[in-house]
Structures are given as structure tokens and as C-alpha cells.
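Box 4.2: Ligand-aware structure prediction
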Amino acid sequence: MIYPIVMYGDAVLRKRASEIVKGTDLKDLIADMFETMHAAHGIGLAAPQIGKSIRLFVVDGTTLEDEPTLKDFKKIFVNPKILGETGTEWEFEEGCLSIPNIREEVARKERLRINYYDENWNEFEEEFTGMKARIIQHEYDHIEGKLFIDYLTPLKKRMLKGKLADISKGDVEIDYRIAAPLRK
Ligand code: NI
């Protein structure tokens, strides 16, 4: 099942998502999240983006031909906890399915250590670097109620105000289903 993707301006994107009870069967939801993400040509999707305020996100960079480091990067993160971020900050242009048609440079640390569960409640602790780390940091921010535009300078934010208002109203050119909070 493909969910509509929640647009910027919806309160669910600003809430710290809740921990999922261990043992919960997430298989159908996870399958739907991958389906929804693929339909929108995204490489990451967090549960709040389909209106569910729970600590879960999926990533799939395997379709990005120009990013060979991501060729086996298809993963599920349940109740993730970033244990530490290290290395030099590097900038890269990010986008977000909940903030369509806006791309901006965001600086993030190059390496992270994370504890998480998979869909079968197996626990992992792993280190990720570079683009993998960046995708995880972006999605992890979603379950903390944070968005990539929060990192922009006040001037940049002011310049995007009109576009963001349009997104909240669902006034965007996009080829996937959306749920806009201020759509009339
Ligand atoms: Ni996003």
C-alpha cells in the first residue's frame, strides 16, 4: 500500500517520535514504507512522513547509479539510537520527500555509530560513513522532529518562506501522492 507523503507544515514532522514496543510486528508497515518510498523515488523514508510518529525509518540507495558505495545499502532501522558522530563536517545538497523541489547544502559529520533493530528485532551496533551516514542522519532527524532546512541560515530560510508556504498548501509540482496540512 502506498501512503501519501506528509508535507512540510504538518505537526507530525515536528514531534519527537515514540519508541516502538519490542516484538511489535512491523513487516506490513515496513513493506508499505519501501513501496511508498520507491513510488516517490526517494532513498530514505521515516515513519512520521507517512503520519506515524514512531521511531522507524527505511533507506534504499541501491538504485543510485552514480553512488557505487550505496549499492547494497538497503536497510531498516527500528528504535535507532545514534551513539556518537565523529569526523569532519562536509557539505552536500540534500532534499526531502516532505519538502519537494527544495535542495540545499547541509553540513554533517562524516561518521556515526548507531544501535538499532531490524524488522525481526535483531539488535545491531554499526558504524557508517560518508553518504550512508548522511542518509541515516537525515532520516534520524525526522524521528527527532527535525528537518534539513533547520540547518540553514536565517537568510536562506527567509528566502524559502514562500516556497514552504506553498508546500504546506499542497501547491507543488510533484508526481507522488501527498498529504498537505493546509490544503483547502
Ligand atoms: Ni527527509
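In the box above, the bound molecule is nickel (II) ion. The longest strand covers residues 74-94.
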